[in-house]
Design the sequence.
């Protein structure tokens, strides 16, 4: 397939994912506004631990359909409010995994055009071959972008295979940095760890967090960093420079 067609297909996939970001934000904002409107007294009095309703769980027999287990659990306004953040982040995790898989497909289909064997199974292996074979790409990429691509790949792995959680944080960092040759027996540049730290929050231990980061909040004016769009840009940049190798 023509490299221009491959890039066009990949970029359209990223654009669709970016649209899903805005759609998810609209859905979450609507739900937050609904909660605030329906439970305004609790929000005004900061009484978010009030039980709103009971969650019922019933299990039925496969044989005759009769209930064989029944349970109840209280649901508080705090649970509902936190649930909006949890759902929002899970959508973003899915979008990152989806976009990276599209990037990996782009790499696999571009490999034959770049005279790279088609049997390579992962994005990181294909990128390693490209870096070894095309010094021009390395000059364009920089080690920081190389690091971010590996970070995205490892996050996608944990999103798909570990429910978006990282149980061993030190090992997570080590695998990322070792794979691109900058671990240096643990004596690595601390700014890489600082970057990875940004995707984790103290109050949600081990969970990969991709939500927007507020940078300014004034009356009538708010600004934020869209974390996911920044990661999309990293993959788009790599795909574009790979296309340049073929065109040139």
Sequence:
């Amino acid at each position: 397939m023509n490299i221009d067609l491959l890039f066009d297909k990949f970029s359209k996939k990223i654009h669709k994912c970016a649209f899903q970001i805005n759609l998810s934000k609209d859905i979450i904002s609507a739900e937050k506004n609904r909660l605030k409107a329906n439970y305004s007294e609790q929000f005004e009095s900061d009484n978010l631990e009030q039980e709103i309703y009971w969650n019922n769980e019933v299990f039925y027999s496969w044989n005759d359909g009769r209930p064989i287990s029944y349970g109840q659990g209280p649901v508080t306004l705090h649970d509902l409010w936190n649930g909006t953040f949890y759902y929002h982040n899970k959508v973003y995790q899915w979008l990152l995994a989806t976009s990276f898989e599209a990037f990996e497909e782009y790499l696999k289909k571009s490999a034959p055009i770049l005279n790279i064997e088609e049997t390579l199974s992962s994005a990181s292996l294909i990128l390693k071959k490209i870096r070894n074979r095309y010094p021009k790409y390395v000059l364009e990429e920089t080690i920081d972008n190389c690091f971010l691509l590996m970070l995205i790949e490892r996050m996608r792995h944990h999103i798909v295979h570990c429910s978006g959680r990282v149980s061993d944080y030190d090992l997570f960092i080590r695998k990322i940095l070792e794979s691109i040759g900058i671990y240096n027996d643990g004596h690595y540049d601390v700014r890489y760890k600082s970057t990875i730290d940004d995707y984790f929050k103290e109050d949600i231990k081990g969970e990969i967090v991709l939500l927007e980061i507020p940078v300014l909040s004034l009356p009538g004016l708010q600004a934020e960093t869209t974390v996911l769009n920044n990661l999309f840009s990293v993959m788009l940049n790599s795909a574009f420079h790979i296309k340049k190798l073929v065109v040139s």
Q: What stands out?
A: The two ends are 17 Å apart (CA to CA).
